[in-house]
Amino acid sequence: MKRVYVNEKWCLGCRLCEYYCAFAGTSGKDIARSLKGVKINPRIKIEEKDGISFAVSCRHCKEPLCVKGCITGALSVADGVIVVNQDKCVSCYTCVLCCPFGAISTSESGAVQKCELCIKSAADKPACVAGCPNNAIVFEERR
Fold it and tell me: Within this chain, do residues 25 and 53 fall inside the same structural domain, yes or no?
């Protein structure tokens, strides 16, 4: 299964992946108009440590602790992608605590949010990958 991978050697810390991720969650046609004046809450986050920038997003684990820890069944695996059913989420945030990568966060609705590889869009790759100017984020299959 294809997943998002980050090459921190090429990451500039520009945060464009965050903006493209946030834009993917809108119904807008223009990123500048859709996000102007909006505080974004993307599903991918740039972290910086010791001068190194890297993107943190869901790794879609083969044995996901977040899914096992979800008390309501709001998190499930569909075709290898961990998805959130926001209607089932009761905002207990157990999944946030269970994720060893810090890839699950809260959303404005109170339910959790995480990268779902833009499966709801018709694009051939996630928005963060398509928007990365330095190809530091890739969408590929690895063993």
Answer: yes
pTM: 0.90
Show Cβ contacts of residue 19 under 8 Å, excluding neighbours closer than 6 positions.
31, 35, 40, 42, 131
For β-strands 137-140 and 3-6, DSSP reports them as antiparallel
Residue 141 sits in a domain whose CATH number is: 3.30.70
Number of domains forming the structure of the chain: 2
Q: 21-80: per-residue pLDDT in tens?
A: 999 988 899 999 999 999 999 999 999 999 899 899 999 999 999 999 999 999 999 999
Residue 93: partners with Cβ closer than 8 Å, 6 or more residues away: 106, 112
Domain range holding 100? 60-114
